[in-house]
Amino acid sequence: MRVLLIMPPAENTIKFLRGWQLSSSDYGTFPPLGLLYIATVLKSNLAKVEIEILDCPSEKINYQQLEAAIRRFKPDVVGITTFTFCLVDVLKTARLVKAINNDTHICLGGPHNANFPEQTLDYPDIDSIVLGEGEYVFLELIKSLIAGSPPPEIPGLYFKNNLRVSQFDKSLIEDLDEIPVLDIGFIKKGIYKSTVGKYENIITLLTSRGCPYQCTFCDTPVKKFRSRSIDNILEEIMLRLDQGFQEIFFYDDTFNIMPERVIDLSEKIIKNKIKFAWSFRGRINTCSYEMLEIAKRSGCQRIHFGVETGTDVGLEELKKGITVGQIKNVFNWCRKLKIKTIADFIIGLPFEKSKEEVVKNIERLISFFPDYAQFNVLQPTPGSQIYQEGVKKGIISQARWEGFVRSPYPQFQPPLWEEYLKQDDLALLLYLAYRKFYLRPGCIARNLFSITTFGEFKRMIFGGIKILFRK
After folding, report:
1. Which of 127, 215, 330, 434 sits most deeply, having the most CB atoms within 10 A of its CB?
2. Which CATH architecture has domain 192-379+416-469?
3. Could you tell me the pTM of the whole model?
4. Which residue has the higher pLDDT, 22 or 36?
């Protein structure tokens, strides 16, 4: 049995804005953790299964090269990661697989399925879908295909001609320690990087899954928080360092939901004299000075914070569960401890009724003094509360989204929240936000003087060119 896991080429990714914008690759490229976990579980449980991963965007594989790779490998089963924004490329990849061998079983996983399970099963080239966390669900699928028998009825696995239940259930792994430590031998070395990373050889690592918070703009389908044990995390850290990595980016939805867990991990790193640079995606309201101080001593270099907007009223409307006072305190603590901060910020929110209000919010963000900022125009995606509110108000067309999902095309323009500001206004404000933040003399000087490695300098310069001089 040959299993090919594919991250499709990113040639037809739909875009929210017609004007100036950054792509996800401008911030860096990271390993496809979802596919890696599936490959690792398959390898650990089925010795005779051959497995390959093709990360087409990171490996710069086009469709001609993808076709050659499929013909060479001759897969019996193909699993494809599916995001709604990449749907055109997902289905184009599926058609390519079926054109080569119509008997190849195609299974789609990924967050798109959670919002559109029935529509996904309607696509002619798709044989099955996985909802939720797919490691052991996909394993059962492969076992059943090897045996030539119907798969067991487990939550999360659905077929075109046999839904089995009227209500779609998602798979969820309760004990994350039961998953084998990730095998990164399936991916190429040296192609992944972070624009703001300290070292060239950076790797991502997950210590938990799920986020229990209810931010209105978020479409994350899994809310239940579960975490790996500290010893289990340390085992993977040591393995990555032995493999030559110098920096680890903890890629959890929210790494510090339980601050005591961060303190415990940091203490173990210090006690065992493990030396490496690390960073994480975190929340403001679960940060304490004690947690940040010991994290810094154990090697923490950088924290990505979701700030989103600059007023308490706005934060409350977004259900962020944080206040401006907390943001200021945490950013002050990080400056004192010399931990770099990245603030994620959204413009074009429902309560921003003019260009002037957006500019004031950008200025408020600047007053928090983060080291870096990532700006995005609000993307009211299906599955989020803001999307539902927009549909109810008639600001967002649900029929427009459903039409795209049923018949995807690359020119699709997702609806924005254009109650007060139109798309061209938002595109211009996004461009101005980056220039307003990064062209400040103090920002330039602070970032240049904080550089400690040549690789960090190189990535910062090239990243700055992309941000500031793209038309």
Report:
1. 330
2. Alpha-Beta Horseshoe (3.80)
3. 0.92
4. 36
